[in-house]
Amino acid sequence: MSAHIDVTNLNVFYGKQQALTNVSIAIPRQQITVIMGPSGCGKTTLLKSFNRFLELTDGTTITGAVHVDGQNIYAGDVDVTAVRKRVGLLAQRPTPLPMSIYDNVCYGMQIHQMRTNNADYVAAVQHYLELAGLWDEVKNRLHEPATSLSIGQQQRLCLARGLAVEPEVILGDEPTSALDPISSQHIEKRLLELKNQYTTVIVTHTLRQAKRLADYVIFMYMGEVVEAGVARELFTNPQQERTRQYLEGVF
Amino acid sequence: MRLKPWNRRHLIERIMQIAMIGSLVIVGLCLGAILWTIIARGLPALTWEMISQAPKGGFYMGKGGGVLNAILGSLYLASGATALAMLFALPIALYLQTYLATSGWAQLVRLALDVLWGIPSIVYGAFGFTLMIVLGVRASLFAGIIVLALVELPIMTRAMDEVIRRMPRDLAQAALALGSTKLEVALRVIIPQTLPGIVTAVLLAFGRGIGDAAAVLFTAGYTDRIPTSLFRPTASLPLAVFFQLGTPYPEVRERGYASALILTIIVLLVSFGSRWLAARLQRYTVK
Question: Is the Cβ pair B179, A56 closer than 8 Å?
């Protein structure tokens, strides 16, 4: 197992409050890693340290290192836009940009100048909408506002938009929590289909979803990693008392 | 008698409701009274001659002519000033929101803008006039536009600032997550999303600009000629109203009200136009 994301001694403070304490963890390549734990345990904070989203909040202090493919993304000379291109994020709630369906997918490719002519952009938009399982539903209405889609469709659009900038890593911050069951299934299905091409890290608070998706699991409690391991082993035979309690639904 | 809590809550709601409706009625009556005054007194004098001709000799003593000089002057002054102010207001508002965010500097800039907003426009006029004397410039359309732009800048910037501040943060973050720079977020996400609000901000500033008499009094001057050059004095509607109402001749004062009516109609037209535009621009915005 080769680590794609390597976290060493990560400490995160929001003002004076410590959100993560000495987190060291390795995220395996091209598998689905699920971060779970009770609310407020720091799982979203850990996730957002991977695309340098923590610094968007005022008063955040970060120490330690996060290496993506061997590069410390917190090093001084790193271009944060390049990090975020490599590490995509699927947010909790779908957030279509204020433009058409087509432009939502095209936007990322345009800002990174990933194609040279319009025909290539058109083909790429179709490709990524297909990859996200949305093409058939939107192919006749590409130039309508993205907000005209249903919430579930919007989240698949956000997936297509994220994939279009060709990231190596997909982060999901409870990506199905705002969706109805059918739409959630859609997203989960896509994530499973894509897991061989991307390293995927998902935060979830539903144990059942964790069990459906995870190849590798990180269990967190009070800002620390309690236990991490291969999903089947961790779910059937947790080594730590707290993990066992959580899996049994004690808290 | 002590009311039950349940009754008291409903009584309080009732009282507050009446107070709110009362305020609304008072404001409505004021607006109605103003409109009624200028329509009742101005409409009879509002002839085609009024809006199609410049003043002729003896206009201010009741002879022929109109206020085309002031209509055009006001349109030039307010459009020029609004365009100029927008050139500065939009970048300032975007910079405040994207780069300075909630820092101390941003608060300082906002405070400065709020203070500027509160300064009476006659002070801007006096400031502009002083500057013109130092530079040896005479009253002109150009000077009027610049001073009027200064009057408009704070209101426009703060209105844009507020509109952008109310934008959902998720939206900017969604673009940042794709690796956008802050500039790309500003140009491709913030502006399209807040365009209806930006249009409203521009309109607010235009309204203040076209209605302002004090700032243009010294800086743009006044003339009975149709404005043809940036570097000559120009008339404006608020001053036209002022000069005509100041005469002892009833028929001239009536034309003063007609001029006020014209000014009001221009503001109304611009207001409706921008509302229509804002509604059309809402197609892609995220609610």
Answer: no
Residues B28 and B144 in one domain: no
Structural domain containing residue A159: 3-247
Sign of CA dihedral B216, B220, B222, B227: negative
Block residue for tokens 């091409």: A197
- Sequence-ordered list of residues with C-beta below 8 angstroms from that of B106, at least 6 positions apart, any chain: B96, B100
User: Pick from B157, B154, B153: which is nearest to B81 by CA?
Assistant: B153
Which residue does chain B place closest to A51, by CA atoms? B177
Average pLDDT over residues B227-235: 89
pLDDT in tens, A184-206: 888 898 889 888 889 999 998 88
Task: Please report which confidence band the pLDDT of residue A1 belongs to, taking 50, 70 and 90 as the band edges.
Answer: low
Token readout for A41 is: 């345990």
Judging contacts by C-beta atoms under 8 Å, the chain B residues touching residue A108 are 178-179
Choose among B177, B192, B193: nearest Cβ to A84: B177
* pTM tops 0.80, yes or no: yes
The predicted structure's pLDDT at residue B100: 84
CA-only gyration radius of chain B, Å: 23
ipTM: 0.89
Q: Taking residues A107-118, what's their average pLDDT?
A: 90
The three-state secondary structure class of A126 is: helix
Contacts of B231 (CB under 8 A, 6+ apart): B140, B141, B142
Mean of the pLDDT values across residues A29-33? 91
Q: Is the pLDDT of residue B2 over 80?
A: no
φ, ψ of residue B52 to 5 degrees: the values are -115, -5
Contacts of B177 in chain A (CB under 8 A): 51, 53, 84, 88-89, 91, 162
Nearest Cβ partner for A96 among B173, B188, B286: B286
Domain residue limits at B267: 51-284
**Under an 8 A CB cutoff, do A98 and B175 touch?**
no
Is there a single domain that holds both residue B17 and residue B98?
A: no
Do B151 and B204 lie in a common domain?
yes
Chain B residue with the nearest C-alpha to that of A100: B284
Q: Do residues B216 and B128 lie in contact, with contact meaning Cβ atoms separated by under 8 Å?
A: no
Q: What pLDDT is recorded for position A249? A: 81
Please indicate, yes or no, whether residues B267 and B185 belong to a single structural domain of this protein: yes
- B99 plus B117 within the same structural domain: yes
- CB spacing of A165 vs B178 below 8 angstroms: yes
CA distance B176 to A180: 27
Residues of chain B positioned with their CB less than 8 A from the CB of A85 = 178-179
CATH of the domain at A48: 3.40.50.300
